[in-house]
Amino acid sequence: MGPKIKFTKEQIIDAAFEIANTEGIDNITMRKIAEKMGSSVAPIYLNFKDVNELIEALMDRIVGVSQQLLIEESTGNPFDDIGRASLRFAREYSVLFRNLVMKNNSYMKGYNEQMLPVLIQEMKNDPELEGFTVDELNTILLKMRIFQLGLSVMVANGLLPEDYKNQDLMDILSSTADDVILSARIRKSQLK
Amino acid sequence: MGPKIKFTKEQIIDAAFEIANTEGIDNITMRKIAEKMGSSVAPIYLNFKDVNELIEALMDRIVGVSQQLLIEESTGNPFDDIGRASLRFAREYSVLFRNLVMKNNSYMKGYNEQMLPVLIQEMKNDPELEGFTVDELNTILLKMRIFQLGLSVMVANGLLPEDYKNQDLMDILSSTADDVILSARIRKSQLK
DNA sequence: TATAATATATAACAAGTGTTATATAATACA
DNA sequence: TGTATTATATAACACTTGTTATATATTATA
């Protein structure tokens, strides 16, 4: 019916992703994407109604990448896995991570609301957390989410010592988890 | 020598600050500032060489505002004060806060490097922290900085329950501080 | 092979940007 | 009072942006 397709939706999103991860989402332009693909802007407008539709597709891609990291880091302990995956995302895609934090978009909220019940359920099955009420588990989880977010922001912004390896990050994450759990345990026993 | 000055440097920065705190720093334009002041762009260019110089002045203003918050929250305990001031900044100037986090600029790094020695010194004088080595104090401080940053980001992004008041934030902050310190104490005694 | 369909390139448009040249008018001082 | 100074307004400039109209060229199919 027509000439062969040289520039697919996927290629366009690839190019947009690359720009987003180096210059930030706000610095994406149609012409930059075209230039990165070696095309004009015409193929972009054939695949996307307008720039909003393209950014939406890009957001889906970004969420997909973060989920892919979570799959790759999967060891069976969702608590550790999410920590490891988030830290990898913050380090390997720091510009995108900062963009997501900055945007205050619904992705973070949705992501949380989706993950939280799973994590609480996992905590209930964790022998280390036996005996805690749901309220207490929620407090522990909240503290750890806060800490992990702070750690991720620090990683993304290069605010940690340069010699900090991924293992060091996981160590401080689990060390603080221990702190929170141990203290909750003590607090609980003192009330008896 | 000439007509009365109707638009001062300060008014210009005021207008820029207002735009920055509602739309973000990247959305500042000369014409928007002028419109907010009810002027043309001419007074702006009389006071600032170009947009970069203006943004620089705006950054100084933002740092000033955050320092003003720190002064207002000053109760003598720098640890608490910084927490309270940071959380207020994250809540009352959430767009600016996210902008600063996003930008990965030197302000955060400089701010940290300036504050850290003061805090460590303060910790050395804190009776609650007696007996810890400098290394141990550094670990405690790092954990608390991470937690506070995470909490601030959550506040700025509205990721916490809506009924969370400032006092609740301070409570969870100091509760986690207790967790970290108590656990460090226990860890220390177990090593003996 | 001729034709219809269409992927792509080019160029233009309108809107918005930073910046500057020019004109205007208000003030202080001789 | 007249004049030099200068704060301000207006308008234009060059550039970038998203978007679209038009032209071109390539492919499958009749």
Structure, explained:
2 copies of one chain form a homodimer. Chain A is mainly α and 192 residues long. Chain A folds into 2 domains: 1-72, Homeodomain-like (Arc Repressor Mutant, subunit A, Orthogonal Bundle), CATH 1.10.10; 75-192, no CATH class. Helix content of chain A is 75%, strand content 0%. Chain A has 9 helices and no strands. The first copy, chain A, has helices at 9-23, 30-37, 42-47, 51-72, 78-92, 94-103, 106-124, 134-156, 166-191. In chain A, α7 packs across α8 (134-156). The longest helix of chain A has 26 residues, at 166-191. The radius of gyration of chain A is 21 Å and the shape is elongated. Chains A and B meet through α6, α7, α8 and α9 of A and α6, α7, α8 and α9 of B. The first copy, chain A, binds a DNA duplex (30 and 30 nucleotides) through residues 1-7, 29-31, 39-43, 45-46, 50-51.
Characteristics:
DNA-binding; mainly alpha; homodimer; 192 residues; Arc Repressor Mutant, subunit A
- Sheet bearing the most strands of chain A, described? none
Overall tally of domains of chain A? 2
Oligomer: homodimer
End-to-end separation of chain A: 79 Å
Strand runs of chain A, count: 0
The chain-level mean pLDDT of chain A equals: 93
Portion in strands of chain A: under 5%
Residue windows where pLDDT falls under 50 for at least 5 positions of chain A: none
The structure class of chain A reads: mainly alpha
Q: List the secondary-structure elements of chain A in sequence, H or E.
A: HHHHHHHHH
Radius of gyration of chain A: 21 Å
Pair of chains with the largest interface and how many residues each contributes: A-B, 35 and 35 residues
Number of helices of chain A: 9
Specify the overall morphology of chain A.
elongated
Q: How much helix, percentage-wise, in residues of chain A? A: over 70%
